[in-house]
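Ligand: adenosine-5'-diphosphate. Inputs:
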Amino acid sequence: MLHLGLTGGIGSGKSTVAARLRELGAVVLDADAIAREVVAEGEPALARIAERFGTDLLTADGELDRPALGRVVFGDPAALRDLEEITHPAIWERTARLREEARAAGSRVLVHDMPLLVEKSMGAEYHLVLVVDTDVETRVRRLVEHRGIPEEDARARMRAQVSDTERRAAADIVVDNNGTPDETLAQVDRLWTERLTPFADNLAAGRRAARPAEVTLVDPDAAWPETAERLIARIRHGLGERVVTADHVGSTAVTGLVAKDVIDLQLGVASMAEADDPELVEALAALGYPRSAHIDRDESKDGSLWPKRFHTSADPGRMVHLHVREVGSPGWRWALLFRDWLRAEGPARADYAALKERAVAEHPRWEEYAEAKEPWFAEIEGRAQAWADSTGWAPGHG
Ligand code: ADP
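Predicted complex:
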């Protein structure tokens, strides 16, 4: 099941987007609604709140008097912490239960509508984060005009949230809601058809996203490193301690280098047996990285074989090649050395860029393109190693 985190600042139009996703067929879990449900009358969390803060926080009907509770915890960190210790586990449990119910019912796309997703650093819990982005002044105007919120209240609430820049930095997908509602809905519909549905189908089938038959080189994208960081955070979140090292490698990890729009990641694991553990293989597939079983090694420059396991992305919106190698093995070391050498040496970058342009012009098909680059690798291994020797390079984690 594809797990999408949906967020946006207050008044951004998140509810509009959530409603459309629901219409299109997603199951939407509303974090605000869940937070209210766990303290509804008869819920254990409500009884604990009454125990801790007093029964005068309940209305005559036995419901939670939210404004009164708000006054009690406002400006009192210890009280707020106690409250969260009661509510957070209940919220977490309910969310997990609803998620499992959606999965059991065969839902393909689960949306978590979570206003404070970025504030609470939750991006790693989802396959994708969608941010609804609307200029502050437009948001203020809409909140005042459509929701009757006083302007100063709207601005104060916005000041309590992260900035739009920070929110966008956490996004895999940005929906621009500065225009008309129809323009926004059209973006959501296109996203549903072109990315979310095929991604969900690929996840369910355990297969990679389709890729074009031919390689295209693109200009360097300044967002590649932060994209890689987001992906690594998700993989670490999903796999935990089993990931010993996780690095952005390959051309997209080298500033200014022309490249295929593919994020290469290297995961270092304790042994190849670990890389083959069905649990780990399954976990990577569930994270959106099914294994490509036909690739299980790289040929080194001296002809010896460097074992690896290869996983690719199920997301049609983001090509990723994931190389799983044993930490400290020659293949693992080479991926880091090659990247760091290219980062450090301008002439090496220029040579590599020229080689790529030639290879893609003469052999645009993926397999042949990779093969066309091989002889150069044999040639430069010595150069890269000489650079490592002269600089005292050691594999770090860049
Ligand atoms: P959020 O859930 O992110 O706080 P809402 O979805 O409630 O924001 O949107 C705030 C207000 O702006 C609502 O009254 C909504 O109907 C209105 N709105 C949302 N998108 C648009 C749009 N593109 N044009 C005009 N009004 C909009």
